[in-house]
Amino acid sequence: PAQLAESGGGSVETGGSLRLSCAGSGNIYSMYCMGWFRQLPGHGREEVAAIAPSGVFTYVADSLKGRFTISRDKYTVYLQMDNLQLGDAAMYYCAAGPFSLQCSDINDFKAWGQGTQVNVSS
Prior knowledge:
Layout: E1 2-7, E2 10-13, E3 18-26, E4 33-39, E5 46-51, E6 58-60, E7 68-73, E8 76-81, E9 90-97, E10 111-112, E11 116-121
Parallel strand pairs: 2-11
Antiparallel strand pairs: 1-3, 3-8, 4-5, 4-9, 5-6, 7-8, 9-10, 9-11
């Protein structure tokens, strides 16, 4: 299995930026898909973005395109979040999974990080 360690969360004002990082280790075949999900209290996890090796495929939720960018360097994945809004405040989780055609389903992801909190204030 993969082990994932997130960093980079914190507090920003609306319009600000944050960059999340997630370093993966362990079974490299379990880290074909790497991505980010977020979760608000009382809600399910929402897929934010995902990426395959070498960026051959990327996915960003439609509502976040233009503000969120995912990138990857081998088994470290980054989420650049710009123009943050109040609705972006959540716990953000890094996730990884084995080969998948699109890396766009939560069931594609088998390993999860502990999460990093993002707070946005007006």
